[in-house]
Write a structure and sequence with these properties.
64% of the residues lie in helices and 0% in strands. Helix 2 runs parallel beside helix 4 and helix 8 packs across helix 10. It is mainly α. It has 2 domains: 53 residues, no CATH class; 130 residues. The radius of gyration is 41 Å and the shape is elongated. It comes from Scomber scombrus (Atlantic mackerel). InterPro entries: HEAT_Ints3_C (IPR056518), INTS3 (IPR045334). This is Integrator complex subunit 3.
């Protein structure tokens, strides 16, 4: 009933409610029933409270259970905040949800989500929120999607999902493919650099002695620089000159 009150009345009620240190896990299930157009006051109060908390597995599950809509930024906003402060914890919780929902049959997931009053988290829903988070973090320096648990979970999902999901979330799965390539590169680089064998060392040409070459060249230069002795005149030429006198 309080969701139909005026904005100030709703904010005051939420402040009184949260001031009594009531565990947040008891309030979070209401997230699935709040609509971004009709209940902005309740969503903003819950968002402020969630930003103060370290994410637990139940919190992450309830946040991911919200319907994915382009204009509803609640889930993306809180995931982005947790990714900047608690990236290790958040990556482990998302990995657990991805693997858990990936192991369940797709038909069973659709039946549960349509029949039960409390909406069940599906694999497609998680991937949608993850893709929105990826786009949100693309403009800032954030290493959340380089976390090993996230990349391992994406590899696990990609190996068993159908072609339709692979095409729809191709950019998201591309991160897992890059991670797989980076893991295999060190092994290839080691094979490309084998040690030189003794035979190749024997066949190699011996190194030239630069000292000998420089010594011989300097000696030849010294010989060229020495002044040459003048040629001696022949005695016959001198005798002919004296008779003419």
């Amino acid at each position: 009933q309080s969701l139909d009150w005026e904005t100030f009345e709703q904010y005051s009620t939420w402040q009184l409610f949260l001031a009594h240190s009531i565990p947040l896990e008891t309030i979070i299930p209401i997230l699935q029933h709040l609509k971004y157009k009709e209940h902005p006051e309740a969503l903003s109060c819950l968002l402020l409270q969630l930003r103060r908390e370290k994410p637990s597995e139940e919190m992450v599950k309830m946040v991911l259970s919200r319907p994915c809509h382009p204009e509803d930024q609640f889930t993306t906003s809180i995931l982005r905040h947790w990714a900047s402060k608690y990236d290790d914890t958040l990556s482990e919780h998302i990995k657990a949800q991805l693997i858990k929902n990936n192991n369940q049959p797709r038909k069973r997931q659709s039946l549960r989500s349509s029949s039960s009053k409390l909406a069940q988290l599906t694999l497609e829903q998680i991937l949608e929120h993850m893709d929105n988070l990826r786009l949100s973090l693309s403009n800032i320096k954030n290493s959340f999607f380089s976390q090993t648990p996230i990349l391992q979970a994406l590899q696990h999902v990609q190996a068993s999902c159908d072609e339709a999901h692979k095409m729809r979330f191709s950019d998201l799965f591309a991160l897992a493919e890059e991670y797989e390539d980076s893991q295999s590169k060190p092994l290839k680089s080691r094979r490309k650099a084998p040690a030189t064998s003794p035979r190749s060392r024997k066949g190699a040409a011996p190194p030239t002695n630069n000292d000998d070459e420089s010594g011989s060249s300097s000696a030849s230069e010294e010989e060229d620089s020495k002044p040459k002795a003048p040629k001696r005149k022949r005695k016959g030429s001198s005798a002919v000159g004296s008779d003419s006198d």
